[in-house]
Amino acid sequence: MSTLPPRAGRRCHNAVNPLHSTLFFSPDLTAELGALGIDDARAAYFAARAAALGAVGAGAVTSTFYNFNHELVAQHVPAVWSVASPDAVLAARLRAADTTLRRLLGEEVIGSSDMAEAAGLALRAAGACTRHARPLYAAHADLPVPTEPHLAFWHAATLLREHRGDGHLAALLAAGLDPVEALVSHTATGKGMSPRWVQGTRGWHREDWDAASARLRARGLLDDEGSLTEAGTALRAELEETTDRLDAAPYEHLGADGVARLTDLARGFLFTAASAGAFPGDLIGKG
C-alpha cells in the first residue's frame, strides 16, 4: 500500500523530467554533436538518447523508443556510430547538458544549495529503480554519476525518466496501443505533442496518423472530431495509473516529505528554464 499522497510520484516526475528534456531542444546539443560530425537533427536525437546502450542497431532503438517509425530509425542507425562512437556522444551530451543548464538557470541557481539538495534527493530516488525489463534505464544506470550537482541532478532526472518510460511502454503494450495509436490518443488528451511535431520528429505521415485514428474510432476510443470518447479517456487514465504503479518504487523510497521537496525544487528550476525559452511554444497541443 502506498505511503504517498495520490499521484505524488507522477507530479514529481512531471516536474523533474522536463529538466532532462531541455537538452533535446537545446542548440548546445546540436553544436556539440555537430562538432563530432553528426549534423542531422534526427540522427543526433537517436545517438544522444541511445548512446548508453552502446553501438546498437536500428531494431534496438525502435524497440526502446517505441513511437518512432522504424524506417526513419534505420536511415540513421547504426550508421551514426561510424561517425561518432557512443562514448564520444555520451561525453558530448554531458557537455551540452552543462552548457544548457547554465544558460537556462544561471550560475546562481547552478551553484545553489537548492541544486545540491535536489541532486541528492533525485539520486536517492533513482537508487530504488530496478533494471529488469527496463533497457533504457538499465543502460543509463551503468553510467558514472557526474560530480557537479547540476549534472548529477540531470543524470538522476535521466534515470527517473527512462525508468518511468520503460514501464510506460509495458502499459502501452498491455493496452493494445501500437506506436501511432499511442501518439494519436496522447495528443487527443491535449497534453501530448502536436501532430505537426509528432509527424516531423517521429517519421510518421498523415496517412499513418489517419489510419491510426480510424483504428481508435473502431475501438470506440476516439470520436469523429478526433477527441477521446469516454472510453478513450478512461483508457488513457488507466495507462497513467498503471505507469504510476510500475514507477512507484523510487518515490516510495524517497518518502512523502522527500518527494514533496524534490517536486517543489524541480518546479522552481523548470519555471526558470521555461521562462528562458527552453521549449518551443508550439510543442504541445492538438493542432
Structure description:
The longest helix is centred in the last third of the chain and has 28 residues, at 248-275. By secondary structure, the chain is mainly α. It contains 16 helices and no strands. It is globular and about 55 Å long. It has helices at 8-21, 27-35, 41-50, 58-65, 70-76, 80-83, 86-105, 107-110, 113-126, 135-141, 149-175, 179-188, 195-202, 206-218, 230-246, 248-275.
Q: Which sequence of SSEs, written as H and E, runs from N to C?
A: HHHHHHHHHHHHHHHH
Portion in beta strands: under 5%
Overall, the morphology is: globular
Number of strands: 0
Tally of separate helices: 16
Category from helices, strands and their pairing: mainly alpha
Main sheet attributes: strand count, strand direction, barrel closure: none
Low-confidence stretches: none
Helix content: 55-70%
Radius of gyration: 19 Å
How many angstroms does the end-to-end distance come to? 40 Å
Overall mean pLDDT? 95
